[in-house]
Amino acid sequence: MTSMSTPLFALPFLLGCASPPSSPPPAQVDAVAGWYTSAESELELHRGPEGALRGYVRAGGRVAALAPIASREGTLHVTATQEDGTRAELDLPVLPGPAPMLKVEGLTYRRIACEAPADATTRREVEAAYAKLALAVETRDFAAFQAVRVPEFATIPPDGTPSPGSRMADRARGLLERIQPPITTRNDILELTVRGDHAIATVRQTFSRMQRVQDDPEPHVIRTEVTQRETWTRTPEGWKLLFVDEVRDHVTFDNGKRIDR
């Protein structure tokens, strides 16, 4: 068992018990999914594409991924992974009440919003935000690209270790410097929901560009496709990207030949 080297918040360690926890059934997943806040941090829980419950917690500019999550006798048993890869096994008791609450060693997280289908106006606004993002990529405009993200933007990549906004900014800058025209990017919204001031889009992203590969002096046509869950937040300047997770089904083509397996 490991502990979080610099905890986002204090949580008790999971102790041995008579029976192992199990994955929450779909009805229980939906009953606790949503956006929670405490006096010091925010916590998100959602149903993954395969039905499992997972999420993340944000505090002090840092993020911890919460997965896997199991359930037993009114308590969520969570593996929390920090940005440096350290992990801890944690208990989150679920408190009864008109809206779910999670008790975290002195802190009470109250659910303030849960997902519902987005209306046509929100869809138009989010589509316009994606158009800004695509234009920034296609023109290799790093400043415009960053302007579509909030400063605290972060991701949980497929390996499950969160990546903060500073790391993602460096990655974006490097990519925009390497790629060459023609550049096209498309985000097809497969599902769009709202949750308070958030809009959550599941998108299939297609990204094509010219790019040098290893020692070949001639640039190659590289096309990548990926499905991911992207959380947008409403700001005075419009919708901006807050978080990306559930990254899956990634494929890469090099000069038309699929190279990932």
Which residue ranges are poorly predicted, with pLDDT under 50 across at least 5 consecutive positions?
A: 1-7, 9-20
What is the number of strand segments?
15
Question: How far apart lie the N and C ends?
Answer: 33 Å
What class do helices, strands and sheet pairing give? alpha+beta
Coarse morphology: globular
How many strands, which pairing sense, and closed or not: the largest β-sheet? Answer: 8 strands, antiparallel, barrel
Estimate what percentage of residues fall within beta strands: over 45%
- Number of helical elements: 4
- Mean of pLDDT: 89
Q: Encode the helix/strand succession as letters.
A: HEEEEEEEEEHHEHEEEEE
Question: Quick recap of the structure?
Answer:
With 261 residues, this protein is of the alpha+beta class. It has helices at residues 26-32, 120-138, 142-147, 165-178, and strands spanning 34-37, 42-47, 53-59, 62-72, 75-82, 87-95, 101-104, 107-113, 116-117, 149-155, 180-195, 198-211, 220-235, 238-254, 257-258.
Structural notes for this entry:
The protein has 261 residues and is α+β, with helices and mostly antiparallel strands. It has 2 domains: 88 residues, Lipocalin, CATH 2.40.128; 143 residues, Nuclear Transport Factor 2, Chain: A (Roll), CATH 3.10.450. Helices cover 18% and strands 50% of the residues. A hairpin with a 2-residue loop joins β4 and β5. The two termini are 33 Å apart.
